[in-house]
């Protein structure tokens, strides 16, 4: 039997932009992607702390150490600049493997989305 578990989590980052005219996705600082083990194109779930919105999209790599967190396309309607969000990805694992799996969870600085 397989179950879905949290694989990666970027806990509480500040939205730096919302671009309605982009094709879609969320642009995430490359340093945050690396630290959380999320890859470009991976499906991610977004939880908006400010308004309770929950939705999914896919990750796009942003400039490293820029702090960029931009929601693109239709997702831009679900956030505003400076909203605080949580970014989560999940993995499908065998039940026994899931019992010992340790997710990559990071807690960036909410002021500038840095890892320090």
UniProtKB/TrEMBL annotation:
Residues that, per the record, bind substrate: 57, 73-75
Cofactor(s) needed by this chain: pyruvate
MF (Gene Ontology): aspartate 1-decarboxylase activity
Gene3D superfamilies cross-referenced by the UniProt entry: 2.40.40.20
EC number(s) per entry: 4.1.1.11
Modified residues (Pyruvic acid (Ser)): 25
Keywords tagged on the record: Autocatalytic cleavage, Cytoplasm, Decarboxylase, Lyase, Pantothenate biosynthesis, Pyruvate, Schiff base, Zymogen
GO cellular component: cytosol
Pathways per UniProt: Cofactor biosynthesis; (R)-pantothenate biosynthesis; beta-alanine from L-aspartate: step 1/1
Keyword Cytoplasm tagged: yes
Gene Ontology BP annotations: alanine biosynthetic process; pantothenate biosynthetic process
Catalytic activity field: L-aspartate + H(+) = beta-alanine + CO2
Note on how the cofactor is bound: Binds 1 pyruvoyl group covalently per subunit.
Keyword Lipid biosynthesis among record annotations: no
PTM: Is synthesized initially as an inactive proenzyme, which is activated by self-cleavage at a specific serine bond to produce a beta-subunit with a hydroxyl group at its C-terminus and an alpha-subunit with a pyruvoyl group at its N-terminus.
Active site: 25 (schiff-base intermediate with substrate), 58 (proton donor)
Localisation per UniProt entry: Cytoplasm
Family: Belongs to the PanD family.
NCBIfam families: panD (TIGR00223)
Job of this protein: Catalyzes the pyruvoyl-dependent decarboxylation of aspartate to produce beta-alanine.
Subunit and partners: Heterooctamer of four alpha and four beta subunits.
Protein name: Aspartate 1-decarboxylase
Name of the coding gene: panD
């Amino acid at each position: 039997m397989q179950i879905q578990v949290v694989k990666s989590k970027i806990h509480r980052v500040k939205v730096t932009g919302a671009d309605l005219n982009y094709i879609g996705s969320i642009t995430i600082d490359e340093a945050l992607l690396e630290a959380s083990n999320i890859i470009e194109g991976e499906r991610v779930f977004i939880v908006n702390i400010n308004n309770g919105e929950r939705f999914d999209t896919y990750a796009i790599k942003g400039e490293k150490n820029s702090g960029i967190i931009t929601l693109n396309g239709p997702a831009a309607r679900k956030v505003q600049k400076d909203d605080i969000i949580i970014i989560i990805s999940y993995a499908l694992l065998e039940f026994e493997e899931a019992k010992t799996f340790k997710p990559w969870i990071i807690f960036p600085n909410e002021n500038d989305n840095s890892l320090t």
